[in-house]
């Protein structure tokens, strides 16, 4: 399938784009905000399009045109304020869902946050972040799309281990961003993940094994 990666210039996004580029069963299109980012991807032989999550839905839908799936890996980042969290992690995610529907991209994968579905487990320091993720996820669940919501634990820049644990509810633990990308890649056409949300942390199983056991 042809996959649009939203947030392709982010750390998870870059790992996922590489997996998709090297794949023999998927094609990738990277969505970025800046021309220099698009030029960098194109120099590596990767299709890239410009669109802004703070722009209109139609702009994102145009980026998704011709794609079968959309993966939302974008985020406002830890250095921004609550306003950007609302605009990117909530409204940007919801716009992306609406854009996927408009473009006819029936498959949608959302990168959320561990325990975002469980208000009693939200961190007090970043409740606005968890609230944004929670309601973006709920909007996706109420859409017409074949969705999967991946809720990773604490993200690290360690090298991926290729070993994860996935379940509806897990205790908070860390996971390398590279392994999150591997889970997203494995989930794309894994029917056991359709219409499901799950937490994922480092563990003992390959992503393929972990997802089949959901």
From TrEMBL:
- Name the Gene3D superfamilies on file: NAD(P)-binding Rossmann-like Domain
Domain NAD(P)-binding residue range list: 7-190
SUPFAM superfamilies xref list: NAD(P)-binding Rossmann-fold domains
Q: Which domain of life is it from?
A: Bacteria
Q: What is this protein called?
A: SDR family oxidoreductase
Origin species: Alkalicoccus luteus
């Amino acid at each position: 399938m042809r996959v649009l990666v939203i947030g392709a210039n982010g750390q998870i996004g870059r790992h996922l784009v590489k997996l998709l580029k090297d794949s023999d069963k998927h094609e990738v299109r990277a969505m970025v905000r800046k021309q220099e980012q698009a030029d960098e991807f194109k120099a590596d032989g990767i299709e890239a399009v410009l669109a802004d999550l703070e722009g209109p839905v139609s702009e994102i839908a145009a980026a998704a045109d011709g794609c079968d799936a959309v993966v939302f890996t974008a985020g406002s980042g830890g250095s921004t304020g609550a306003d950007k969290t609302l605009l990117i992690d909530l409204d940007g995610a919801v716009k992306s869902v609406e854009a996927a529907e408009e473009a006819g991209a029936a498959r949608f994968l959302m990168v959320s946050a561990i325990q975002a579905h469980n208000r009693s487990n939200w961190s007090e320091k970043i409740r606005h972040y968890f609230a944004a993720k929670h309601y973006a996820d709920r909007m996706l669940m109420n859409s017409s799309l074949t969705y999967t919501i991946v809720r990773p634990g604490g993200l690290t820049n360690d090298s991926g281990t290729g070993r994860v644990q996935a379940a509806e509810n897990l205790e908070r633990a860390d996971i390398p961003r590279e392994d999150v990308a591997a889970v997203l890649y494995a989930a794309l056409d894994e029917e056991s993940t359709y219409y499901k949300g799950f937490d994922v942390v480092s563990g003992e199983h390959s992503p393929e094994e972990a997802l089949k056991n959901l």
